[in-house]
Each structure stands twice: as structure tokens, then as C-alpha cells.
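Entry:
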Amino acid sequence: MRRGFIPFMRAHGQRPGPGQRPKTAGALAGGAAGLLAIPMLELSRAAESLGLALAAEDWQIRALYVGIAVLAGLGYGGLFQRAAADRRGGWLFGISYGFLLWMLGPITLLQMLLGRPLATGTAAIGILAANLLSGLILGLLFRPAHRVVRRSLERRSLASTQDVTPRAAEQSYGR
């Protein structure tokens, strides 16, 4: 049984191959997910509550949220690696990851640092909804983002193999 389990685990997330960049794909998908979740923060007035709690302006809250989403996507790609690109389970990995980040970030860490709740009422629900939505979008966009990253790597690799003439080398590296 052990012999059958190890190849299964290698095929489902353990080690990405040389052409795979799960952290880069996660960062791209995380940035998009953060941008798409901002309206949820606005509708629930959670952005306003965050601005008051953190003494920051609206644009700073948006930039902070997207920046954290990029870092969260980077962590998502690093944690789940190839399993994050699963067609059937990517959304579930994403929404679970969004819930985990909500529990660790605004609920635990920020309340501990501030000494009071970050948000209450509708704003608190809005933060939860934004994190769940962001995680869901992250899980759904990871696979297409990974495809974009792989195509970019393939184009770069193809371009580098075509320019092996001495003239191209001089232009790239100087004389």
C-alpha cells in the first residue's frame, strides 16, 4: 500500500515540475482575487470600519487588502503546489484557505495587536464574506493563472533557444 500511496502524493501536490511555478501563479490569482473582493468590503462598509480601526485612508485599505491577497496567493501556491490546480477541488481549497486566513488575520492577530475587535456587526460579516469570496476566486483562478505563467515560460524558453547566434549573444551580453 505504501508503494501506491507515494506516487499518488507526488502526483497531487508534493513537488512541482521544472516548468511549474505555483507561487507565481498563486500571487497572480491572489492579486486578482483581492481586487474582485474589494466591492464586498465596500458594500458591507467593512473598508470604512477597517480604516477607522487601522487609522488609514480608503485607498490604503484597498492597497493593503490586495497586497495581503497577493501574499496569501503566494502562500496558497506554496502550500498546495500542484494540488491547487485541481479542476474539481481548487474551489474548495480556495474557500477553505480564505476561511483560515480570516481566522488567523482579522480575528486572531489583529484583535490581539489592537486589543479590541477589528470590526463588529455588518462590517465583521463583510470581512468574513470578502475573505471567503477572495479564497473562492483564488481557488478558481489558480489553474488559469498557472496556464498563463507556463505559457510565458514556454515563450521565454523558445525565444532563448532561437537567439543563439553570435550577434544575438553580443547584443544580450556585450562584447
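The first helix runs from residue 2 to 14.
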